[in-house]
Amino acid sequence: MLSVDGSSNQQGSGAGIILEGPNGVLIEQALRFAFKASNNQAEYEALIVGMLLAKEMGAQSLLVKSDSQLVTGEVTGEYQAKNPQMAAYLKYVQVLNGAFATFELVHVPREQNARADLLAKLANSGKGGR
Asked: Cα–Cα distance between 8 and 38 in angstroms, integer?
């Protein structure tokens, strides 16, 4: 299971990623981006980095939780990606999706994604090590 969140503000942008494996393995990452990103871009970046991490760890099935309605809607096909940049992110997610036997992305309320949200906010706060 993968929980992701992206965050962007005037201090910067980043991602919070939590990957939970079947044997109790837990990987938590707070990533600060070296580029300016909108909140939606940060959400996609978080999803992509999380998917790459899951792939690298050998995951066959992936359930992803995100509180981004836009990203979840575009990936599930509920929304159409009209912005060219969002469409490019979506295309890459669809390519990565092929690395898993099963892949599901579900929208969860922000309260149910609090840990990933906290990691993303920590990453873009400018505090902590680099």
From this structure: 6
- Domain boundaries 2-124, CATH class: alpha beta
Rounded Cα gap, residues 22 and 38, in angstroms? 33
* Res 105 pLDDT > 90: yes
Percent of the chain with pLDDT over 90: 73
Q: Whole-model pTM? A: 0.91
User: Are the C-beta atoms of residues 130 and 32 closer than 8 Å to each other?
Assistant: yes
User: Where do the domains of the chain lie?
Assistant: 2-124
Q: Is the separation of the CB atoms in 119 and 5 below 8 Å?
A: yes
Of the two residues 12 and 74, the one the predictor is more confident about is 74
